[in-house]
Every structure is written in C-alpha cells, then in structure tokens.
Design goal:
Helices cover about 20% and strands about 30% of the residues. The protein is built from three helices and six strands. The two termini are about 15 Å apart.
Amino acid sequence: MKIKLQQIAHARSGDKGAHSNAGLLFTSPEIYAWAKTNLTSQLIKNHFKSIAKGDIIRYEMDNLLALNFILGDSLGGGGSESLINDAQGKTHGQALLLLEVDFPDELLQFVKEN
C-alpha cells in the first residue's frame, strides 16, 4: 500500500550554511525498524533531486526512533547567504513528510489516519 511519511512520522528540519537537515521521528518501534531498512539515502536523494545537489548522509538514532538526513548543498549557497534563492532548510522536513512510500500491510495497524 502507498502511504505518505506524514502518516507514520513527525519531522524537524533546519539549515546550516549550504546544507540542511531533515529528521524523521517514527511513531512506533515497528515502523522505525521498517524505516531503517527502506528509507535509504538514495531514496531521499531522489525525493530531493531538484534541491539537494550534494551527498545525502543518514544518521540513525535508535534511542529516539529517528533518522536524520543531511541534505548536502541544498540551500543554493546558504539560507542567509543566497540572494538568488532564499532557501530555508526549515521547510525540508515538511517536504519529506510528503514522500509516498510502499508500506507493508502487516504494519498498517500503526498508520495514522489523515
């Protein structure tokens, strides 16, 4: 079944220089285990292909049931430095929550209703 990440996670994001981060906090240990296997750096790179020009680095935070993605070169020179692109990393978490993923039926009991 296809779902959006907003149905299984909360997000927090920000920016630092030319990079931004988007963190996802999952609603259950079962969903977090699924996310660690399925939400790869490459998947996130594909989702942000028009924004992130650099590498995507993923950090796992098992004690928080969270994944944090560093979106390399995603702010067009920096949130406060770019005159052409007034990019702000704080929006990237919300954009990540819109990502549609294939989600297993056996975990649907943990999915939030819209």
